[in-house]
Amino acid sequence: xxxxxxxxxMIVAITIMILTLSGCANQQGKASDVQKQTKVGYYLDTVITxxxxxxxxxxxEKGLEYxxxxxxxxxxTVEGSDVWNINHAEGKTVTVSDETAEILRTAIEISExxxxxxxxxIAPVSVLWDFTSGSQVIPEEAAIEQAVRLVDYRQxxxxxxxxxxxxxxxxxxGGIAKGYIADAVKAKLEAAGITSAILSFGGNIVAxxxxxxxxxxxxxxxxxxxxxxxxxxxxxxxGGSTVTSGIYERGFTVDGxxxxxxxxSENGWPIQNELASVTIFSxxxxxxxxxxxxxxxxxxxxxxxxxxxxxxxxxxxxRRDRSAAGTSGLGKYMTDGESWETLEQxxxxxxxxxxxxxxxxxxxxxxxxxxxxxxxxxLPTEGKETRTIRQKLEDGSEWLNVIRMTPEGxxxxxxxxxxxxxxxxxxVTLENMKxxxxxxxxxxxxHRLTLSLYTKEEAVQISRQWLGY
Amino acid sequence: MHTATQKVARFxxxxxxxxxxxxxxxxxxxxxxLGGAAPGIKLGLANTxxxxxxxxxxxxxxxxxxxxxxxxxxxIFGSLTAILYSLSGGILSLLxxxxxxxxxxxxxxxxxxxxxxAETMLLIQNPHPxxxxxxxxxxxxxxxxxCLVAWIAIRKGKIRGIPGTSIAGAIAHNVGQVxxxxxxxxxxxxxxxxxxxxxxVGAAVGTLTGIVAERVFRALHINPEKPEGQKK
Lengths: 469, 232
What we know:
heterodimer; A: 9-stranded mixed β-sheet; 4-stranded antiparallel β-sheet; 10 helices; globular; B: mainly alpha; Arp2/3 complex 21 kDa subunit ARPC3; about 0% strand
């Protein structure tokens, strides 16, 4: 009897031991297999980095394979892709995949919402610009003018999976395809059981869940002048996506003027406004991708109005003067210590243009030359306008100059420089500028700021010189 | 017969004098008198100290005085950018004055030509000037004539050469300042637009300070044509 009990006890003990051991082994096995895995690929002219905490790195390989498949479907340059077929159909109807049809429908929806600021028929213009090879060639003005006439999303006809595009027009899904692919890869990885990952597709960043320690994934928004550094940290508190469109991503600089890759669907030139970058927070990266381009083109004011009108979407604006502004719900994405202004407090942004056309309505232009920017500010066609020229200094302080403009000319009305010579220099008008000692200029020497008044004809001439015509 | 103590005392006095005259320059608001339309214009009385140094001391002392004046007045009254502008003007002006101190008549003649050139430039830009520009054109015309009169007077020995040196120095000072300003502001158009005005104004105020320096030397019974260096 005793022996028997002893035997049972031994069996129980051994069983417990085995169970415990195997339990340990299981736990150890899990801890060593669930590691940070990273896979990098190059598709759609973009470095794609997939990072996940998983014990199955082959899933990430799969993710990259999907990217390759989507590239074959959506690339403008891959022969036989849906987009290539549409672009080469010469007006005939083409049958496309469900995915392509879905992207096209979303693209047209965003085009409508943004009044055409986002437009996937930009391809005739974008083929003229070469931002990737380093050739630094500015296209012919006439060629751009001709190409931009072919840009009109309203001409796309979609019926189910049949797409028709008038001959000559061409599609470029560069502003939306990466977002779609990011969403698709995220969905596939989630379906495969991955619960913690961060996927980077160039400007598009998509998060799955949180980090293993429960903290949110954080994303840095690039500094204007340091393409590798970061200025601002934002958190993807709810998973979701950030998409950033910025002037520093692709482009080149000629004579101090940056020609970046975000082209205006209206005139075919790189968009020149107060913005350096726009970041969109949303669940859908496809939506964020299209909106980031649209909102960049619209500028801070109109862009934020568009974002506020939509649910579950927020925007962060970083201006060229490095000030930041955000839409009403942005706060929940910001990490501690980051500051941005609410949009109500902003001045009307100062938009300097490098291209002046004879057809523009302004009677004259102020050439603004400061320590870090140069460009034209058009005079108002009627009434008075007050504008603030801010120069952010490296130590964080600011130089301020306030000018008042009329259709005839302008004068400096306020400045925080010493001496206030620039205010004393008085008004420059198209009439009096030849009788002034400083000719057409108002100079604020301590702020390294020169403002010169030019007639429209002179401004057109200077603009042409800059652009190399 | 100069001990080190004497030398130090003299430098101290001259530096202080230059600073005080600089203050006076700032107190006489030529820019404001012109309605603020021409920034950076000063009478340049402090320049008389440099003229004294150019004629009565060696060139190292003159350079030292100029640097002391520029840096100190910049630190006391102005900003770093102000130091940059006056340094550029000060160096060029002193260089020119040291080069022509033995031949001041040439300075007057050169200044006359420059002023005439500036006048022509202004008239080419706007053949029918109005307002302040008209007054400046007249002022430069007068200054140009004054330079030529000074040239003749110096050549004939009627006056000493100090005004000649002073005019050349004043113009060089303004040229230096505009060069620095157009470099800092990255606006080469300043050279064609504002430089002629400043050359003309330089000729005018240079004549004035030259006459002041001449009077001062006479009152102090100093003969600048026979500096101490040569006495030894």
